[in-house]
TrEMBL record:
<dbReference type="InterPro" id="IPR050214">
    <property type="entry name" value="Cys_Synth/Cystath_Beta-Synth"/>
</dbReference>
<dbReference type="GO" id="GO:0006535">
    <property type="term" value="P:cysteine biosynthetic process from serine"/>
</dbReference>
<dbReference type="InterPro" id="IPR036052">
    <property type="entry name" value="TrpB-like_PALP_sf"/>
</dbReference>
<keyword id="KW-0472">Membrane</keyword>
<dbReference type="InterPro" id="IPR001926">
    <property type="entry name" value="TrpB-like_PALP"/>
</dbReference>
<protein>
    <recommendedName>
        <fullName>cysteine synthase</fullName>
        <ecNumber>2.5.1.47</ecNumber>
    </recommendedName>
</protein>
<keyword id="KW-1000">Mitochondrion outer membrane</keyword>
<dbReference type="InterPro" id="IPR001216">
    <property type="entry name" value="P-phosphate_BS"/>
</dbReference>
<feature type="domain" description="Tryptophan synthase beta chain-like PALP">
    <location>
        <begin position="56"/>
        <end position="378"/>
    </location>
</feature>
<dbReference type="GO" id="GO:0005741">
    <property type="term" value="C:mitochondrial outer membrane"/>
</dbReference>
<keyword id="KW-1133">Transmembrane helix</keyword>
<dbReference type="GO" id="GO:0004124">
    <property type="term" value="F:cysteine synthase activity"/>
</dbReference>
<keyword id="KW-0812">Transmembrane</keyword>
<dbReference type="Pfam" id="PF00291">
    <property type="entry name" value="PALP"/>
</dbReference>
<keyword id="KW-0496">Mitochondrion</keyword>
<keyword id="KW-0808">Transferase</keyword>
<comment type="similarity">
    <text>Belongs to the cysteine synthase/cystathionine beta-synthase family.</text>
</comment>
Amino acid sequence: MAWDQTRLLAVATLSTALVLGSLWYNDVVTVEIKWPVRGKKGISKMKTGFVAPKGIEQLIGNTPMVRINSLSDATGCEIYGKMEVQNPGGSAKDRVALAIIENAEAQNLITPHSGDMIFEGTSGSTGISLAMLCRAKGYIAHIVVPDDTSQEKVDLLENLGAVVHKVRPAGIADPKQYVNYAKAAAMEINNNPENKHRALFADQFENEANWKTHYDHTGPEIYSQISEVLPKGKTLDAFITGAGTGGTISGVSKYLKERLPHVKVVISDPPGSGFYNKVKYGVMFDLKEKEGTRRRHQVDTVVEGIGLNRITRNFSAGSDYIDDAIRVKDEESVKMAKYLVDNDGLFVGSSSAVNCVATYKYAKQLGPGHTIVTILCDSGSRHLSKFWKLAKESASIKDLSQL
């Protein structure tokens, strides 16, 4: 093999080892690998040091951060996206699903490879993460989704072996609302003395393992990564993300504010959600909640994954750390999604597009020279039949002033 080819192979192998070796989960298996090093008489020395994750769950977290060049150049700020899309299940919800399962196992509520079941009500991404981990750990996933969830998410759930229950979108007071349906189904199994298997209601909205995993892992990762990226004397100025369960914004903002009290935390919010008014005016209400004005039962938007009209336990855990809110229109998020593909090659999902619109707007408010981090939650591949169908039909914009 030519020396240049050998050196290229060695660099690629070393890069993989460094990425996997930085995992923060325990119980990894050390596997010896060797790559050639050029000595005086050619290739003779050998080095070792590859660390292999023990199971797919050890690939979760420690996601990279990328400078979003188009947004940075347009604003004069340094804008970075935390690439949660690079989790093995394709979204930030891998962290939450793993934390919920491991917490339940520690309390002996469920046992791996025993036939126990996990129920959750979700618009898609959390269900996909749970389905993946249930397969790996020997559980049966039962995922309850609104019947207008994008078909590609439903297909993915079913291909991952989940039992999918579709229900009509409804308010939280309705016993047949998708979260309530999942909770009731789990309770029915647990209350049946003849049933040999147990059922866990994951309860991502109220289960505090959600925000705590972002405090324990996502927050520290962002803090460490941005500290390494920025030159001496520079610091993080703002963190911007949306909220569905509220776990990400609560956990990350709490961690960052404890170390960087000056950091501004901003919530990005789609149409129909009440978080914007809650942060701005202290009232969890949106005009689309008015009787007879809302087309969709939960949140009147094409955006999936963020936006809600009630305060969850996870949101409450960090609400005091949120400084501001930015409302993002559907047409703005659609235009942003196309702009990121055209200018950065980033194919993002709807909630990531909302985050990027809010980040651009806030950067313009701050002015040049500031540093902002946002979350790139998931890929556009999960939004082809709804959000990206609209984006495909929408005209591209040449610059962000056209948002």
